[in-house]
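> example.struct
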């Protein structure tokens, strides 16, 4: 038995990391401390001063453990690794897990290439970035290759030089073709040096060379080639003019600002490389309720830069953070040279931080508006439905539909919505095994029976520790069952649930004569709904999704089966008439939808047979 008060007395006065566990032994919080004894004990005082989020966390602590480190810096690194491993519920964490693109020049090769990569490695290559947009990186690489006619192939050169024909790029003037063996290593190296200067933002020489080449081509009346060079020149000029607006020194730095409210936080980062703004990105932080701004900002810096391979020379912040010196040490060690954290108060740097702050606030405001809209469409809509049928709450809804053509290949679909959003990982398809012919009620009985029997079996396995699948889609029962249809389908569902001893509310999604959603059928009466309400719109989306999923499954099965198999069941339609039908129509579905007149136009199909075919597909048509 873990005695918290006794274990608190044993805590050492050393730096390290502490790990809090709840009663289920789940890690709920990871923290670092300069002095484990003082820091961990502070959580268990009557007045913590840490806000409701931490107070709630403390109330859940069943036990704790700790790891001693040699320094606070080592504790910071270990804390980051453990947070990434356990994703504790009460740690302020980055929602995003992004890898940023870099431009890589493979200088370790005799004839280097320029590529997009997601990681920097300690090799002989030269890296530029990180950039916020892979699209922009690909465009830049394409432009550089076009200007300096660099190779894009993966041939091992010069070993494979002269073997095989050069690729299309050589024929269209996009590559100097070192693969032919006609380009020396020294000559190619000059092109690479020019490309490196270009990527460093030194556009002057490139613009000068392009202009001279364009002029020469024009004088030689090679106007088509001159126009191609002009387009490249304009692209380089656009880039150079765009970069001028942010250039004030040659340093690499990230500018970081925070916008936060009671429940959400957004961090905006401007990436400045060699004095030029190359991109920006925003990040959402979670579990920020009751957490101070300086702590959120510090947590972001630790987590973000623990996961990115490039550390700039300077981080510019809008306000102080906790453990500034320790974090600086962490960044410096990771970078391999000094990194400083500054809080500019005046001048151009302060203006840039202010700009980042405004952008962060704009994103947060926009996100909050979108969150409110989404909540109205999802959680708000779910609450409307729960209120309409007078049940306390709804989290998970399952909807079922049957699809067939006159009983041909009966299939069922199960779609799942949680908190008003589709959960596609829990969707399931059913191929009907026990029903032959067009009997939707019998098909639905089979689908529901199979679904809930499977769920009961899974629950039994979980209760008896026979499986680790604690959250399987079948073991989780819905709070509301939705049937595609009215009284008949609802009664089938209620009968199945009663036979299995399961109590779940069941609603029918009723459609009007035009097959549009009209309302809900519940407890033997139809409940009209305001068509402008979010609840009604959600029911419509669920019904359409169940139908779509069933139809797609049915279509896929038909495609895999012999296309004429259903025609064999029609009296009077032999081999020659089946072939005639398939020549005249593209699919069984087209035949099923054809009128008697359209069928009669086929020479091999008499009027009486056309009527038989039409009646076959329409006698029990589903929709």
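> example.seq
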């Amino acid at each position: 038995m873990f005695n918290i008060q006794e274990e608190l007395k044993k805590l050492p006065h050393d730096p390290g990391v502490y790990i809090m566990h709840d009663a289920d032994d789940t890690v709920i919080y990871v923290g670092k401390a300069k002095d484990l004894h003082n820091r961990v004990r502070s959580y268990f005082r009557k007045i913590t001063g840490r806000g409701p989020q931490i107070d709630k966390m403390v109330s859940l602590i069943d036990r704790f453990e700790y790891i001693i480190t040699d320094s606070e810096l080592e504790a910071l690194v270990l804390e980051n690794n453990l947070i990434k491993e356990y994703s504790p519920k009460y740690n302020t964490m980055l929602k995003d897990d992004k890898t940023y693109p870099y431009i890589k020049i493979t200088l370790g090769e005799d004839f280097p290439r320029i590529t997009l990569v997601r990681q920097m490695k300690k090799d002989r290559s030269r890296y530029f970035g990180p950039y916020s947009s892979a699209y922009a990186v690909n465009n830049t690489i394409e432009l550089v290759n076009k200007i300096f006619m660099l190779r894009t192939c993966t041939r091992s050169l010069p070993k494979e030089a002269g073997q095989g024909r050069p690729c299309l790029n050589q024929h269209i003037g996009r590559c100097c073709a070192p693969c032919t063996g006609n380009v020396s290593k020294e000559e190619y190296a000059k092109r690479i040096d020019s490309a490196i200067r270009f990527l460093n933002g030194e556009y002057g020489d490139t613009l000068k060379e392009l202009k001279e080449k364009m002029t020469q081509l024009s004088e030689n009346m090679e106007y088509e080639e001159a126009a191609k060079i002009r387009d490249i020149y304009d692209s380089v000029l656009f880039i150079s003019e765009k970069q001028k607006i942010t250039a004030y020194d040659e340093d690499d730095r990230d500018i970081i600002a925070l916008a936060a409210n009671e429940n959400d936080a957004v961090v905006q980062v401007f990436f400045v490389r060699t004095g030029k703004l190359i991109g920006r990105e925003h990040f959402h932080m979670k579990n920020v309720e009751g957490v101070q701004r300086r702590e959120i900002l510090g947590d972001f810096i630790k987590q973000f830069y623990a996961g990115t391979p490039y550390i700039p020379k300077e981080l510019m912040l809008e306000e102080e953070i906790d453990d500034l010196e320790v974090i600086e040490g962490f960044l410096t060690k990771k970078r391999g040279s000094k990194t400083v954290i500054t809080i500019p108060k005046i001048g151009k740097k302060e203006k840039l931080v202010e700009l980042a702050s405004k952008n962060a606030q704009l994103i947060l405001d926009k996100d909050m508006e979108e969150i409110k809209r989404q909540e109205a469409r999802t959680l708000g809509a779910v609450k409307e439905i729960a209120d309409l049928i007078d049940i306390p709450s709804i989290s998970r809804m399952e909807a079922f539909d049957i699809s067939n053509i006159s009983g041909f290949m009966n299939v069922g679909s199960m779609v799942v919505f949680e908190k008003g959003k589709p959960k596609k990982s829990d969707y399931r398809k059913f191929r009907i095994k026990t029903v032959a012919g067009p009997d939707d009620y019998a098909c639905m009985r089979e689908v529901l029976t199979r679904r809930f029997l499977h769920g009961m079996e899974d629950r039994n396995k979980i209760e008896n520790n026979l499986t680790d699948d604690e959250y399987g889609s079948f073991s989780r029962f819905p709070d509301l069952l939705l049937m595609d249809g009215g009284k008949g389908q609802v009664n089938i569902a209620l009968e199945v649930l009663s036979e299995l001893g399961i109590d779940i509310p069941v609603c029918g999604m009723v459609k009007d004569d035009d097959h549009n959603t009209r309302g809900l059928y519940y407890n033997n009466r139809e409940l009209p709904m305001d068509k402008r309400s979010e609840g009604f719109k959600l029911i419509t989306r669920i019904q359409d999704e169940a139908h779509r999923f069933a139809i797609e499954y049915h279509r896929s099965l038909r495609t895999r089966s012999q296309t004429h198999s259903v025609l064999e069941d029609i009296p009077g339609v032999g081999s020659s008439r089946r072939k005639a039908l398939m020549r005249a129509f593209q699919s069984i579905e087209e035949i099923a939808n054809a009128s008697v007149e359209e069928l009669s136009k086929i020479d091999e199909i008499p009027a009486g047979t056309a009527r038989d075919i039409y009646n076959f597909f329409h006698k029990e048509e589903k929709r």
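> remarks
The chain has a mean pLDDT of 83.
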